[in-house]
Amino acid sequence: MVLTSSGEVLTNNHVIDGATAISVTDVGNGQTYTATVVGYDIAQDLAVLQLHGASGLQTVSIGNSANVSVGQSVVGIGNAGGTGGTPSSAGGSVTALNQSITATDAGNSNAEQLSGLIQTNADIQPGDSGGPLVDDSGQVIGIDTAGSAGFQFQTGGGSGYAIPINEAVTTAKQIEAGHGSASVHIGLTAFLGIEVQPTTGSGGLGGGAFGQGGQQGTGVVVAAVVTGEPAEEAGILAGDTITSFAGTTVDSPSALTAALATHHPGDKVQIEWTDQAGQAHTATVQLASGPPA
What we know:
Largest sheet: 6 strands, antiparallel, barrel
Mean pLDDT: 87
Low-confidence stretches: 199-216
Number of helices: 4
Helix content: 10-25%
Radius of gyration: 20 Å
CATH class of the domain at 188-290: Mainly Beta
Strand content: 35-45%
CATH superfamily of the domain at 188-290: PDZ domain
Structural class: mainly beta
Distance between the termini: 20 Å
CATH topology of the domain at 188-290: Pdz3 Domain
Number of strands: 20
Shape: elongated
CATH architecture of the domain at 188-290: Roll
């Protein structure tokens, strides 16, 4: 959703998670722009992008999600199936308010709880993520959130969900103002350069530090190390277990993600890990720049 005529865009965080390059096509003028991530909130699944060289763009009409009621008509607009071109739409009604879902990655781990959501019977599909849920006046009352490759949620069938626009805009304004927090990350993402050992499914490189998944409760087990990145320079090897990052104990991939999200490229942090022989190690590393978490 275009928030400003100069190209500020609101979307879901899971849409840009792990992206090393982002391009955005504006359906109003047909032009394609490169974009950078201004900031993101993992806990709320929101991200703000800035399109380069954009001007005069048509913006969405923001409504008031505090006035949403069960039974009112809505339309979910997006890119169902990820096919591009003319936006898709799906009509329906609001079926419940203040709902919670558990979102997980492709390995069914690193769970995030999304709460306060608008539930609808509109057929919101993968690809619709980040699109608007509008009322019968065309005003945006929510931001569509749908399961997609690498991002699924556990819920009853036949339901779509949207983040209330009031909360989404509040977070967007916080990001625009450059005010980071425990969950809101501003600017470039710090990168450690490891892949973790998955418990189920497959771990991939991403999240600013590592693939999702991994052993829970005993630290984060390293499956692979990226050549030339901080972890390798520190002497961390595949099979080692990271137990502490920047003074914070990490016992799961999500804990490491949260610890890393409070830092930026160039920060120097202390890491503690145990090798496969049980020997403890400590090193200070300078974090590199990587894709958004």
